[in-house]
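ok so I'm stuck.
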Amino acid sequence: MKKPVYILAIESSCDDTSASVICKTKVLSNVTANQEVHAKYGGVVPELASRAHQQNIVPVVQQALEQANITKEKLSAIAFTKGPGLMGSLLVGTSFAKSLALALDIPLLAINHMQAHILAHFIEDSATKQPSFPFVCLTISGGHTQIVKVKDYFNMEVLGETIDDAVGEAYDKSAKILGLTYPGGPLIDKYAQLGNPKAYSFTKPKVGDLEFSFSGLKTGILYFIQKQERINPNFIKENLNDICASIQYTIVEILMDKLKNTVKQTGIKQIAIAGGVSANSEIRKRLILAEKHFGWTTFIPKFEYTTDNAAMIGISGYFKYMNKSFSDSSITAKARLKVTD
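replied:
not stuck anymore, here's the structure
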């Protein structure tokens, strides 16, 4: 009888320290320690992030093992995020994973964070269906906006991406203009649900069919708010819900337009979303509607697998383990890494 495959996964690419234990494709635990220290700075401070990872990693891993009800001696391999991300943060997770794998004399699995967001769709969960290959994934987060053709677990092709800012940054910068706290994206989503999405119109960028651009939109929002505040200093306060709804409507329209173009060009009607912004209620709603209107099959991850989490690193690690794609102890973290690397 074969021994079950238990993988301990560690994710430390940005400001969340996360550890998960996976048995084959099933999540046994997924523990994340958030870093609230960054809120007062309006963004992630790399030095503070790496220090917090050092404090959090041991208790988070311990908790993940306890919740999974296994000892470290039962582990088959250690998976960790090698990049992309903040170098200081990545180094904490990389060093810990290498040391533990060496101490336990088990394989090491280096995982691409961007691939892991996409592969989160293969976590065993009765509440979600899984895509078959090939499918298209819209990866949307604070650092990335990409349309990826997924041919196999580790065979991916970028069809289109942002030429400047990521969609998550557009949300957060817009929120900052409105005086909302960081992270502002979820707050825009919250207020948008109470407002009129057609109250104000913002210009969509003119770029390639599968390209994104958000810097012009951010500037347009800034100039619009400045102009309105000159007329009425209380403009934001009196119209916050409508402003948020209009911003969100424009951003989601841009995303949906690009997905329609992708389906037209590729003929692939299996559409998945991944990354932190895939938690957004409007993009989820529009994708569900697209199943009815365009005949797409859409794949929307559970909320806990949208943001940075170790379970997605674990599922990627499982597929690498089955391929025997192990890394040796000379592996290094990389702040910059493409989804195709």
